[in-house]
Design goal:
single chain; globular; 5 strands; two-stranded antiparallel sheet; alpha+beta; CBS domain; CBS-domain; CBS domain-containing protein; 3-stranded mixed sheet
């Protein structure tokens, strides 16, 4: 296992993002379509927040059957993405080591970190990315 491996080697570079003007129904659609758990919220190329699937579940029936769609629509219309997303983010640069990223994620209560270079969102790394990296080492 290389000690100074940068997070850029394991981060997702194909970013699926939301804009503050998007609605929570779009967020749910993206979570389900791409089978992901975290979506950065951007303004231009800059990240302004992070929405997790857990955030959405807290206010909805998103994990229930399709019959709950009309209930979700009503609940989703009560909130904006900005009201639900996490705003005070910790981010790292693409040259941050995987070890440093693992330490940040282990110490905090979240499971994804945005990767930002020169104020531009360039990727996202999750605990799943870290686990997959470790599994490849064995």
């Amino acid at each position: 296992m290389r000690r100074r491996t940068p997070v850029s080697e394991i981060m997702s570079k194909d970013i699926i993002a939301l804009r503050r003007s998007d609605d929570l129904e779009r967020a749910e659609l993206l979570f389900k379509r791409y089978n992901i758990r975290h979506i950065p919220v951007v303004c231009g190329e800059a990240i302004i927040g992070m929405l997790s699937y857990t955030d959405l579940l807290r206010i909805s029936f998103a994990d229930a059957t399709e019959d709950e769609h009309s209930v979700d629509a009503i609940v989703y219309n009560m909130f904006t993405i900005e009201q639900v997303m996490t705003k005070n983010l910790i981010s790292v640069s693409s040259d941050t080591t995987i070890k440093e990223v693992a330490e940040i994620l282990a110490k905090n209560e979240f499971h994804a970190l945005p990767i930002v270079d020169d104020s531009v969102l360039v990727g996202i790394v999750t605990t799943t990315d870290l686990i997959n990296y470790l599994l490849k080492q064995y």
